[in-house]
């Protein structure tokens, strides 16, 4: 919880295990604190964060663990449900994980006696990403190395099934475009599917591979970003199916791309974990160079705060937080 200048992080939180994935709740949970979930080798921890950037009475950062959920296997991805509410009586925590056994697990808890989880079977290979329907939270979409994108209801029934031409790396659902799903494939193609007709309606091309991660900009639904090879790429979907802007960023290879949730020109990328460190870069489209560069010991995961220009990366027994300028 201290300010940590040695690795130029703004804050760190100590964890009991290596953190494979970390995710801020992107939805309003009705509380002044932000929910964060992180996954280790066999559990998921849900906690709350509050930062001095949003509350003058906080010194640096406050972090509190709400509950640890036994998972029994390594956690590879986490998605929050918009049905998560801390202001309800009793509160409701709901999230879904993807694990190395190719299953999804839906967790629901009231942080007291009710702790349920359901397992969804169907994918035949590694699951790379998952997301809840952003408005009602009644469906979950997932993408996998098995060359499919699947949409599930909360009982684990498959509602839609899209066959891809290569591994599915990212899947996004935009609150303003609730009937469309964005799916990014490793071969460099990003497709939008109409969930009513279950047809592809638009595609974008990287013209380079491998595409490892893509994101749909919350603040401007016409903007898509991705990393492929060692470059970041950005599209304006009204203009062209080819990137409007691209730049090399990570010497080895870029791993993750995430738009800030507060500014349509702000985004972050991470490189592959090297022998000891992972590089995090924060970019602003108005600046030719990254506006922040950070390193985390063998970091993984990348997530932005819902209302602050602040991002987090998981690492070895730690979560690292960086605050950036708007």
TrEMBL record:
Some GO term, biological process aspect, for this entry: which one?
cell division
Subunit structure, as described in the record: Component of the Nup107-160 subcomplex of the nuclear pore complex (NPC). The Nup107-160 subcomplex includes NUP160, NUP133, NUP107, NUP98, NUP85, NUP43, NUP37, SEH1 and SEC13.
Location(s), subcellular? Chromosome, Centromere, Kinetochore; Nucleus, Nuclear pore complex
Lineage: superkingdom = Eukaryota
The record lists the organism as: Cyanistes caeruleus
Residue runs in coiled coils: none
Could you tell me what this protein does? Component of the Nup107-160 subcomplex of the nuclear pore complex (NPC). The Nup107-160 subcomplex is required for the assembly of a functional NPC. The Nup107-160 subcomplex is also required for normal kinetochore microtubule attachment, mitotic progression and chromosome segregation.
UniProt-recorded name of the protein:
Nucleoporin Nup37
SMART domains per UniProt? WD40
List the GO cellular component terms.
kinetochore; nuclear pore outer ring
């Amino acid at each position: 919880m201290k300010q940590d200048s040695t690795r130029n992080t703004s804050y760190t939180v100590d964890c009991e295990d290596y953190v494979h994935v970390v995710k801020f709740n992107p939805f309003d949970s009705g509380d002044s604190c932000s929910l964060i979930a992180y996954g280790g080798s066999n559990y998921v921890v849900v906690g709350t964060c509050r930062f001095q950037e949003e509350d003058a009475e906080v010194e640096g950062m406050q972090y509190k663990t709400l509950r640890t959920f036994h998972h029994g296997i390594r956690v590879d991805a986490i998605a929050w449900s918009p049905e998560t509410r801390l202001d309800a009586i009793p509160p409701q925590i709901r999230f879904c994980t993807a694990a190395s056994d190719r299953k999804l697990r839906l967790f629901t808890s009231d942080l007291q006696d009710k702790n349920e989880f359901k397992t969804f079977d169907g994918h035949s290979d590694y699951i790379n990403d998952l997301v809840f329907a952003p408005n009602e939270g009644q469906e979950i979409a997932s993408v996998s190395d098995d060359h499919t994108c699947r949409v599930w209801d909360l009982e684990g029934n498959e509602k839609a099934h899209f066959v891809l031409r290569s591994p599915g790396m990212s899947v996004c659902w935009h609150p303003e475009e609730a009937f469309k799903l964005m799916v990014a494939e490793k071969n460099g193609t990003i497709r939008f599917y109409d969930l009513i007709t279950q047809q592809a309606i638009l595609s974008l091309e990287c013209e380079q591979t491998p595409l490892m991660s893509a994101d749909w900009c919350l603040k401007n639904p016409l903007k898509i970003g991705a990393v492929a090879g060692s470059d970041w790429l950005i599209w304006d979907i009204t203009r062209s199916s080819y990137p409007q802007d691209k730049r090399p960023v990570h010497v080895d290879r870029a791993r993750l791309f995430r738009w800030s949730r507060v500014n349509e020109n702000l985004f972050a990328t991470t490189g592959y974990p090297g022998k000891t460190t992972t590089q995090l870069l924060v970019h602003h489209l108005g600046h030719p160079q990254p506006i922040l560069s950070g390193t985390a010991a063998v970091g993984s995961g990348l997530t932005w705060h819902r209302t602050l220009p602040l991002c987090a990366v998981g690492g070895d027994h730690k979560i690292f937080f960086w605050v950036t300028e708007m």
